[in-house]
Hints:
alpha/beta, 16 helices, 13 strands, 12% strand, disordered N terminus, binds flavin mononucleotide, Aldolase_TIM, oxidoreductase, Dihydroorotate_DH_2
Amino acid sequence: MSLCLARLARPLRLARSPVQRRLESTAAANLRRPANKLRNGLIGSVAAGSVAFAYYYLTDTRSAFHKYQVVPLMRWIYNGDDVPRAQGGRGDGAEKAHEIGLKALRGLYDIGLPLRERGQHDYLGTRGMGVELFGHHLKTPLAISAGLDKHAECIDPLFSLSPAISILEIGCITPRPQVGNPKPRMFRLPTSDSLINRYGFNSIGADVAAIRLRDRVRRYAHKHGMSEQEVLDSEHIPASLWENRLLAVQIGKNGSTSETDIEAVKRDYIECVQKLGRFADIVVVNVSSPNSPGLRSLQKRESLQQLLSAVVEAAGKTERRRKPKVVVKVSPDSDSPDDVRDISAAILGSGVAGVIVANTTVKRPSQILASPQTTEEEKRIANKEFGGLSGPALLPKTLQLVERFSRELGDKAVVFASGGITSGHDAEEARKRGAKIVMGYTGMVYSGVGFWGRMAGEMKGILEGHA
Length: 467
Ligand SMILES: Cc1cc2nc3c(=O)[nH]c(=O)nc-3n(C[C@H](O)[C@H](O)[C@H](O)COP(=O)(O)O)c2cc1C
């Protein structure tokens, strides 16, 4: 066979015309000339340098590109309502942008080009930045709150974004899969950097989430020559599988489970703990989503205490040495002194370790339409679309509730602040009022993946007295 090919090749070589041969030898001679060698070397170096620069610049979360190009571009491309045009809708919108954003983060991570914050991260060593939480040392008090990675599909790419992220809360995960509310169900109010969503617990279900979480543990165990159970039982490896960082898994009930049947409700949450608890440092009980009808009625003292006690008991039985702590997430709309007192009593009576204050609101603070730049579409969305509002307009309520819950709970439970926190100043204000952990979500949607490092940098300035 190779002989035949050699025979075929010879006549082909001979078949080149004299002109062709002359051209080839001129080209070869040109390449050998010192001036041309230099020029080609320069072009090669510039090309390689540009690729290296693009790589370093574009994969650095601190680059202005992410805030000033990626965020507006995503809004411009995905400007519909997520209802297909064939069904009378306006095509891909905010929900699709969310999905594509996570896919891009995951894809880049999988091919070894994760987005990450380059540089010194000198905020990590700042005095007063670190916190002790549930026996772990965290280098910052910052956390990503639930709803960003609902389906446990982007855990490592999100932790990779910045060492400023100490906790990632995934979910909400329900025991059985469910599709959530019909689309459209997510709306932007860009003039006030706010969102309204009514996803309604779209979830892949606890079984699939457990497979994803277990797969991470198995891969980690394989890489480090350990067994799966050794990883789960290690005193030194948090469930996040990232040093000094924690994974919180948020759980909820299925829409088909009546909130008035407290035994059925307990079964839903317990099933989630049994399937997911061993992969979590923290289990978050969601009784505060405004988008699951009746859910928030579970915040009434008696039912809440029963539910939380059942979850705490189930968490105590998970198959890992260090059991997950249980935290409850409450609504900012349950804000009367009586509500705060009742919820706090249920927390203290059930042995829950903390409270996240708070979820999105069904209220529409006037601030969201205050700017003269507010468009007619934004006014329509704010007035007509049902769902939970998030973004800076929540901050005053968050701060007020953090203060109230901190006063009620003292040092018996940890307060996590969530709602409208978009700067280092907001974070420090929440900490001053008693929050130990400060969570964000909508701030990242509007300011890009550099959000966490920027916020930690601003906190450093405040802690050192420069800001
Ligand atoms: C699109 C979207 C989905 C959310 N999904 C959940 C969820 O599943 N569970 C939950 O407790 N909170 C959910 N939240 C609320 C956030 O976790 C957070 O509490 C709220 O947005 C307030 O914080 P922020 O103003 O920093 O965004 C969601 C928020 C948004 C914008």
